[in-house]
Amino acid sequence: MNPNVNADPAELAKFSDLAHRWWDPDSEFRPLHQINPLRLDWIDGLAVLAGKEVLDIGCGGGILSDSMARKGARVTGIDLSSKALRVAQLHALEAGTQNVSYQEISAEAMALERPEAFDIVTCMEMLEHVPDPASVVRACATLVKPGGWVFFSTLNRNAKAFLFAVLGAEYVLQLLPKGTHEYKKFIRPSELAAYCRAERLELEQTRGMEYNPITQRYWLSDDTSVNYLFATRKP
Q: What's the burial of 188, exposed, middle or buried (CB within 10 Å: 0-12/13-18/19+)?
């Protein structure tokens, strides 16, 4: 891999090895299937997806990309895992999803090719997997049109997040494969807010995401102590 690409080869290998299971709702990706309607409705409620040009960064197998296209957006999903992208393309063909395409390219390279080309940019559950998250935020700010929206979701870095997202989700409840997350890569909301300010992305809304292991239900709330989402706009 090009040493200048902002990606961790071990992280890419981890998700590539699981790519064939991406669209199995009972697989390791079950949490993504469960939280997708929440993320989709939140994005659509703020930015209205229908008719918009959307870029989904770190799209993986295309769960969010596909659902945004089904809301009427024209979606480009990008990732650096060729296996996951093949899965995403195959699913779009099988499901007959219109107006979604996939490309193997980094956010930074895409920003050089298509500055200010998108009405909406999404970067969900991805920042905690790259060596330089600030670089991805910079690329997002470059890619979105003035007045457009950039949505992020990631994991807070504190004792509770370690307990819930690593020990709880990976080892106790086994919601995710062991080793999915590296605690040291988690990002505090204050850190992500600083990255956004540096790139002139204005924070419009912050939400938290919670999970009840007994009811196996996810919901959005004001509690950003573990999973959280940012909605930002470019002035």
A: middle
pLDDT for position 96: 94
Burial of 38 (0-12, 13-18, 19+ CB in 10 A): middle
Q: How would you classify residue 59: left for phi > 0, otherwise alpha for psi between -120 and 50, otherwise beta?
A: alpha
pLDDT surpasses 80 at 179:
no
Which token pair is 205?
């809304």
Q: Name which of 31-35, 75-79, 116-120, 175-179 the model is least confident about.
A: 175-179
Please state the pTM of the whole predicted model. 0.90
Give yes or no for a contact between 104 and 85, defined as CB atoms under 8 angstroms apart: yes
In this structure, are strands 118-124 and 217-221 parallel, antiparallel, or unpaired? unpaired
The yes-or-no verdict on residue 156 having pLDDT over 80 is yes
d(CA 169, CA 123): 21
Beta strands 202-212 and 118-124: pairing type? unpaired
Q: Mean pLDDT across the chain, nearest whole number?
A: 89
Torsions phi, psi for 231 (to 5 deg):
-110, 120
Tokens of 45: 């409620």
Question: Which option is the CATH number for 9-233: 1.10.260.40, 3.40.50.150, 3.30.70.3550, 3.40.50.12780?
Answer: 3.40.50.150
Strand partners for 205: 231
**pLDDT above 50 for 3:** no
The residue type found at 234 is K
